UniProtKB/TrEMBL annotation:
Presence of the UniProt keyword Transmembrane helix in the record: yes
GO biological process: regulation of gene expression
Record key words, sorted: Membrane, Transmembrane, Transmembrane helix
Gene Ontology terms: cellular component: membrane
Species the sequence originates in: Paragemmobacter kunshanensis
Protein name: AbrB family transcriptional regulator
Ranges annotated as spanning the membrane: 12-32, 38-57, 69-88, 94-116, 160-179, 185-211, 218-239, 245-265, 277-301, 321-343
């Protein structure tokens, strides 16, 4: 039996080199005690190589999206282990911050649009590039409207990258310790040794979660599906542990490399121009998120840091990894980021029809 065509055509040497370089970057970041070291170290190394167009050992860095998608459910399964009757009992108090997203997201979208248009970018690309969630959906809507896919992708991608890089640094300054400076996420359940049966249950939760999530069109299905199935498995007592820390660490490297290689082929002039505006937008977005966090924390029974993490417009998988590393209101943060993605796309669709 031979390999499928997709695997046969894959440059395995380039993939191995990419993961090795990403792992090396993550290892150096660990030694330097940088926040979320494995993810950020691999991202920076592969991102710089991709953006510069370098070809180490005669090969370009690459990481297929399917490989990243295969590892992301690990994060979802780990988050599912944080669900407990005590956590679910607190969910009733989250209403104010979930409702606040209906104000926060349109404001954030509007501010980003103004920053990009005042910076000289076209209105259409600025509108869809400023959507604070749902990168794929936003770019797809913009493409259907006739926008420049490359520019919208760069704006959306820089939103993710700048938030993912900034949030761990902010927490490191505030707490004095590196976020995820060990091998990655840490949960009390991580110390529970898994039996063969429990490993099978977790694998099933990840696979079935992705399949059912996609069939039912869950937002960010490769994350939310495994979260749901893992939560049910833990609540039912079928499993008590979560994926080991080393596997979450490998996932960080794969996710970081997957983000970094997407800088390949980006025009440097476009990257520089959009990057300057994206930095301004990211600073404003994080300042707004902090302001909302301070106001909402007393109303939702969560620390301001958890509310800030829930409102920071980064990627669902990456923000959840930070919450896991901090052992900070993991379910609260994940629920809000799922809501952010759904509401951002719905608001963008409605606003686009209203503005024509």
């Amino acid at each position: 039996m031979g390999f499928p065509d997709g695997l046969r055509r894959l440059d395995w040497a380039a993939l191995g080199m990419t993961l090795a370089l990403g792992g090396l970057g993550g290892g150096v970041a660990l030694l330097l005690h940088l926040p979320l070291a494995l993810l950020l170290g691999s991202l920076v190394v592969t991102g710089v190589i991709a953006a510069a167009g370098w070809r180490p050992f005669g090969r370009a860095v690459l990481l297929p999206m399917k490989l990243r998608s295969a590892f992301v459910p690990v994060i979802g399964v780990a988050i599912g282990g944080a669900f407990s009757p005590e956590v679910l009992g607190q969910a009733g108090a989250w209403g104010p911050s979930l409702l606040a997203l209906l104000v926060f997201l349109p404001v954030l979208h509007g501010v980003g649009y103004v920053i990009y248009t005042r910076g000289g970018l076209p209105k259409l690309e600025s509108f869809f590039g400023a959507v604070p969630g749902g990168l794929i959906e936003s770019v797809q809507m913009g493409e259907e409207a006739g926008g420049d896919v490359r520019l919208m992708t760069v704006l959306q991608f820089l939103r993710l990258i700048l938030t993912i890089v900034s949030v761990p640094l902010i927490f490191m300054v505030l707490t004095g310790g590196a976020v995820g400076s060990a091998s990655g996420a840490a949960l009390p359940a991580a110390a529970v040794p898994l039996t063969v049966q429990e490993v099978a249950v977790l694998l099933a939760a990840g696979a079935l979660g992705v399949a059912v999530g996609r069939a039912l069109r869950f937002p960010a299905a490769i994350m939310t599906g495994p979260v749901l199935f893992s939560a049910v498995a833990h609540a039912a007592g079928l499993v008590h542990g979560v994926p080991p820390a080393w596997l979450v660490g490998v996932t960080q490297v794969v996710v970081g490399c997957g983000l970094g290689v997407r800088f390949a082929g980006a025009e440097r002039a476009m990257l520089w121009r959009a990057g300057r505006l994206a930095v301004v937008n990211a600073v404003v977005a994080l300042a707004l998120a902090y302001g909302f966090a301070v106001m909402l924390a007393p109303w939702v029974g969560e620390p301001p840091a958890a509310v800030f993490l829930a409102f920071a417009p980064g990627g669902l998988a990456e923000m959840s990894l930070i919450a896991l590393s901090l052992q900070m209101s993991v379910v609260y943060v994940t629920v809000h980021h799922v809501a952010r993605i759904v509401l951002s796309v719905l608001i963008a669709k409605g606003a686009r029809r209203w503005t024509g």
